[in-house]
Structures
1.
Amino acid sequence: MNRSFTIFWLAGESSGDLHASKVMQRMNADFPNLRHVGIGGKLMQEQGLKPLFPFDRFAIMGFVEVLRHLGFFIKVQNKIRKYIQIDKPDLAILVDYPGLNLRVARILDDERIPVLYYICPQFWAWKRKRVYDLKDNVRHVAVILPFEKELLDIYNVSATYVGHPIAEEIKLELDREAFARFFGLDPEKQWIGFLPGSRNAEISKLLPIFLEAAALLDPDKYQFLFSKARSVNHHSYMQIMDSAPRLKKYIIDGYNYELMKYSELLISCSGTATLEAAFIGTPSIVCYKASPLSYWIGRYFVRIKRIGLPNIVLEEDVLPELVQENLTAKTIAANAFRILSDPDYAAELRVKLFKLRGLLEGKKTSVEMLKIIRKLLKIDA
């Protein structure tokens, strides 16, 4: 195959950057002449993406926060429209991030650019009308949760279940002893991991509460490991960490999967991290906090009772969920004590999480994505 192809990408979050980069890696190995253009982070850029905008501008969550940056998103849409009119890509792959991506899908479809939507908008949770945007403007949807294809079939949306990307992304580089040596941990103690998120807004809301919660737990029995994502502002993160000088804490920069695997319990922001931890098999407490106005608006639109992805996939309240005013240092500590002090309860949680792993593994997402991409580009297998 000598023909070159231009692929337009749009991934607005760190998780999307990771998921898309794995697909790009598979594509680059399979196709000799590919040009990648669009919006994505460091991992996608390492695979050859030429970025149209700085990636960190897109790490925004919450209704009110998006409204504050509305001018920026309008500018992004206008630049994308001009780009595709001048330099028409052969295929657009939009990754999650539905607030912007569904609007961009309409622009692309108007220009007759085939659109592959990777990681379906959670229309089953809220904004159900988004399914009609998928039907009208998207050529094919690659879904990563088992039940999503059946729901899209009801609306005659062309879709394929490609498996969940975490099944091929989660790899451990260090065993427990090496992990302990690397970060100066005591292997004789139990570790409690805190995952405050990959966005600055999450860090500012969750990290102070997590520090307070850790201070309520027994420092003689546990060591407290705090994840620091590379995407967050280092100065802001360290300022919050320094606000609890008496607490003995360990910052884990990178090696998130090791943190998840070797911790006895995880205190985690809601989102992909909870699903990764569940896939690995470690019980977690799911935490969510938004600005009061964003939360009020969300309550009006959201149609499901659960926010934790493991609980949604299992259709059961397996992991504790602490949301908004119920998320306090005391409620975290109380739920942590329940899990840590009751081996039978902890074992029951791990059995249910093992069931989730069975639901999500089996397909290699990047391979399944490549099959769809070949069809959309009309390349013979």
2.
Amino acid sequence: MEKSGFFNSTGGDRVYDAADFASYFGKLVSNGIFYAAATNLQVTAGSGMSVVILAGSAWINGYAYENTDMLELTLATADGIHPRIDRVAVRWSAVNREIRLAVLTGLAVATPVAPALTRNDDVYELGIADIVVPQGAVSVTAGNITDTRLNASLCGTVNSLVTAVYE
């Protein structure tokens, strides 16, 4: 099938939806966070078992995400015997038609690893931070947070095929 666009409709012969635009823009802009400021979607320690994600924006599969203020997410209660590693992700969901921040809770085991990111036709996640949750922890500390925003395999920064031309 041949497709082209975007043309003005004449008598309703051209109908486009969000998926058409996302497909187009997804070819021009790569997935990742916008790194205009070093604090863009940075994860910091909150109070107790919470983390705070600072304002910022991201791009996933042709769709835009923006967090306009600090957002607090609470981690699950720590295991009493083993540590775990949780991951904070920016999650695009085709089914829910949204992009939201989420905590992926790791498994409490003697040698924990961060949960894998989901990347399929229905869900695509960008990992922005890993958080070590020691056994018996009652709070998150800055030293337990590993920033993964610049790790290209987990998140990375937005790149564009469109470049500015200056004369």
3.
Amino acid sequence: MKTDKKWEKGGYLLRSACEGDAESYFEQNYNPLDPEAARLTGCKASFTQEEVVSFFREAVHAEDRYFFLLISPDGRIIGESVINEIDWKLRCGNFRIGIFQETERGKGIGTWITEVTRDFAFEDLKLHRLELDVFSFNPRAERAYLKAGFKREGVLRDAVLDGDRYADDILMALLEDEWKALKGRTD
């Protein structure tokens, strides 16, 4: 059974998503979706309310996913942090974040939610491996991931489009022992 989690820093709150957040999540972030958020995360430019709300409700209950919302000091949902595609036998999962509001990017919030979610993955979920991918045209995100201990594992060259130009998809991961060393843990 999933437990509700929450973390706070500087007036920002990262907390477990719940089904009742679905409509606000859509209204505050996808109506319309910031074009730069779509570009940096590789998603399509627009979604219907039904697409977002139904996906959100399924995601909250999925057994292979932990879904956290980033709340601004004024109470708006401005982003998310997700561990998904969890393989419980291999003890590995995929990680992604998104900060939907342009005014909230570049403040160090992404680094903070990356570190909090990373720690949750290894402490609470007991994962062995946490992986992600980041596009080469998003160096700010790559720096945040490197700062959080993720290591580059490979590059899928010219694997995505940034407008009409090809860009790389950078594969990164952090292993349990690396996380323990980062945290100074010996257990």
